[in-house]
Amino acid sequence: MNNSGFFLLILVALSCRPGQKSPAMHDLPLINGTTDPIVMDTERTVIPMSDYVSDPFRIDSVTTDGPFAMEIDNSNILLYGRPDRSLYLMSFWSKGIAESVLIRPVKKSLHSFLYDKKAKGVRIIGDFNNWDIEGTIMKRSRNAFTSYLLLSPGKYSYRFVVDGKEVTDPFAQDSIRDESGIWTSVLTISEKIGRPDMKIRSQTSEKLGIGISELPEKIYVLWQNTRLTDFIVKSDEKEIEIDIPLNARKIDFSTIRIWVENRKGVTTELKIPLYFGETQNGEEK
User: Fold this and answer.
1) What per-residue confidence (pLDDT) applies to 265?
2) Interatomic CA distance for residues 193 and 202, integer angstroms
3) Which residues on adjacent β-strands are paired with residue 136?
4) What is the pLDDT of residue 191?
5) Rounded to whole angstroms, how far apart are CA atoms 185 and 158?
6) Is the pLDDT of residue 231 over 80?
7) At 139, is the pLDDT very low, low, confident or very high (cuts 50, 70, 90)?
8) How far apart are CA 170 and CA 179, in angstroms?
9) What b-and-e string marks burial along 78-113, b requiring 16 or more CB atoms within 10 Å of the CB?
10) Residue 186 pLDDT
11) What is the DSSP string of 104-130?
């Protein structure tokens, strides 16, 4: 092989290497805007593909980096599995190019309900069982009625049904009056989110330096909806270094979004706007 052929092979190899600083992207994006993470339930999660993808017929395949089983039912993705981390990624593929959405498994809390007055039977109706009177039967325990429910973080309205009559929970943390003037008990389940420290330390026209409090176990960096690979994102115990994609300079407005998971928990999203590839101040969302 002559020298010109040898150098041509090197040029081809370099131009085709994965994770290059100009990540491949579609002329017409697959995903609508920059989306919030998919909230994954503990047993089965139904994900309408149209909530994330503008045209589901363009999708060739869907993958995740988690220990999940997945089915496609019409235009819905059915996700099953027992996550052992707090962050995962789901990628939609078309013509060899992926656009991705983060997955956040929900950590449910066990909440106890108590009704300690005389009654023949007590049930609970509320937001957590679609106000179905047959949904949750409280069990008699001596002179009281109890029930335990696994609930996702959020705010729930509910009432007890005591011998066919709806009443408020005497032990409720809060209550509100609905449009018809009936009082309804309110339960708030707070999400316990760890917040490892993460902030911008340095920024130039080519690189971002993100300071972190300790060694990350998992890092996800998305530019628009394209995950930036390890070739572009590097980290040590104190900093994450991100090369700004070269194709960001061709777009008037784009964003880099960063999530970090370590033993303390998961950071909130750090969102960094880019204007023709130039950085402005990042903000937590």
Assistant:
1) 76
2) 26
3) 124
4) 67
5) 5
6) no
7) very high
8) 21
9) ebebebeebbbbbbbbbeeebbbbbbbbbeeeeeeb
10) 95
11) EE---EEEEEEE-S--S-EEEEEGGGT
The answer to whether residues 222 and 229 touch, using CB atoms and an 8 Å cutoff, is: no
Q: What is residue 136's three-state secondary structure?
A: strand
Distance CA 240, CA 257 (A): 13
Helix (H) or strand (E) holding 4: helix 3-16
Backbone φ and ψ for 204, nearest 5 degrees, come out as: -130, -175
Q: Decide: residue 49, CB within 10 A, 0-12 exposed, 13-18 middle, 19+ buried.
A: middle
Contact 242, 232 (CB under 8 A): yes
Q: Are 260 and 266 in contact (CB under 8 A)?
A: yes
State the Cα torsion 169-173-177-179 to the nearest 10°: -90
Task: Name the average pLDDT for the chain.
Answer: 84
Residues 66, 88 contacting (CB under 8 angstroms): yes
Q: What is the tally of helices (H) and strands (E) in the chain?
A: 1, 27
CA distance 279 to 268: 19
* Dihedral sign for Cα atoms in the order 227, 228, 234, 239: negative
Q: Per 3-state DSSP, what percentage of the chain is helix, strand, and coil (rounded to 5)?
A: 10, 50, 40
Question: Rg of the chain's alpha carbons, rounded to an integer?
Answer: 25
pTM, 2 dp: 0.68
Other beta carbons within 10 Å of 244: 24
Asked if pLDDT for residue 135 goes beyond 90, the answer is: no
